[in-house]
Amino acid sequence: MDWEALRNRIKADFESKNNTREEVLKLCRSLIQISSYVIRAVHRGEWEEATELARQAQEISRSITEMTRDHPEVYTAGFVHDAQKEYTEAMATYSLIKGDPLPEPEELGVEYPAYLNGLGEAVGELRRSILDLIRDGHLERGDELLSYMDDIYYLLVSFDYPDAITGNLRRTTDIARGIIERTRGDLTTAIRQGKLRQAISELEERLKREG
Q1: CA 71 to chain centroid
Q2: pTM of the full predicted structure?
Q3: In this structure, which CATH number among 3.40.50.720, 1.20.58.2140, 3.40.50.620, 1.20.120.530 belongs to the domain 1-106?
Q4: Which of 87, 179, 56, 198 is nearest to 139 (CA)?
């Protein structure tokens, strides 16, 4: 047995994995940060910046996939899942609020558990957008976004598998359900108030004409 050769061979493998892990960890942190910037730009209506940031996020996501191609143990680490989840949340928020088709997991290059959990977290961002629309009086658009929230929820709730497979999807689904229920109540109240104001306005106009 050549103990030194064995040690060197194992050490080289560990060094390669560790170096890849450190580089991927940095990329994951960058992806999470840029994804948050995408969402911020979307809510501010800064679409040019949001589009550029989304492009950067896509490039980083691809780099993560490429760097981990020969190191599956790094790819399946928790920090990659978390980064892909945040990336999915950002791209879903960007697409749905902009009015573009929702990107599929293969298009984003993310794993299914990260994709589903990312969609679930995007529900909270859609609620934020709906509340802004309510304040601005754009209730029809708010109703459209609420329908997207429903679509996401029905997708999530259709997967009844252990958390080890889905990445704790049950918790994400439960939170999404609560957010949707509150948002539906807020939007319904706003619509009723709008109809009431309209009825009062029409009544006042009629009384003026009759008087």
Answers
A1: 26
A2: 0.88
A3: 1.20.58.2140
A4: 198
